[in-house]
Structure formats: C-alpha cells, structure tokens
Amino acid sequence: QVQLVESGGGLVQAGGSLRLPCAASGRTFDSFTMGWFRKAPGKEREFAAAISWSGGSTYCAHSVKGRFIISRGNAKNTVYLQMGSLETEDTAVYYCNANKIEDNEYWGQGTQGTVSS
Hints:
Low-confidence stretches: none
Largest sheet: 7 strands, mixed
Radius of gyration: 13 Å
Number of helices: 0
Helix content: under 10%
Shape: globular
Distance between the termini: 40 Å
Order of helices and strands: EEEEEEEEEEE
Strand content: over 45%
Structural class: mainly beta
C-alpha cells in the first residue's frame, strides 16, 4: 500500500520555525517529483514547494520564497520542508505530494501547522 506520511506539525509563535518531514513508502519512487501543498482555512489548496528527483532543482511559491526550504533525504523517498520566519498567514494543513508524468499522483493525509500572533 502506497503511503505518504507527514509529521512535524504543531503550534508555533510568529517568527518561529517548523520542520515537516514526509516519508513515502509502498512502491519505488524513482523519478518522482515531491512537494508540499497547503490549505488554509477558507481557502483553496495551494502549491508551496517542490523538489526534483535528484534534488538538484527546487521550486517555491512566491509567498514562501526566502522563508521555506525544501530538501530531499538520501533515500530519495523522504522530503523535508523547513519553514522559518513563520507568519499567521502560514497557518494551514500541509500536504505532501509525489507525482511523475504518466504515473500516479499520491497525497498524504496532511499535518496541521498553526502560527499564533
């Protein structure tokens, strides 16, 4: 069974940091791009960051650029989102995503990150 399992969410004050790991299992994830999306209360789910299979290319939404860093573990099936300088607007459920052209797309169940003022 394919699973993407996120962790690391929680409550943090504005200006603080959170680190979200995501571990993928259940199949081979060769050549998959992995990334993070988020859904804030009352808003649509939006893209936050993504990283290529090799880890050589990363992409960040304008709203998080310079504050969030995405990285990939040595095992390639783990991805991390390091979130810094957090703002109350970053409060959301964060979802891990794995996708590859002409293959399935997978989602995790999400982890809540809450930033207090």
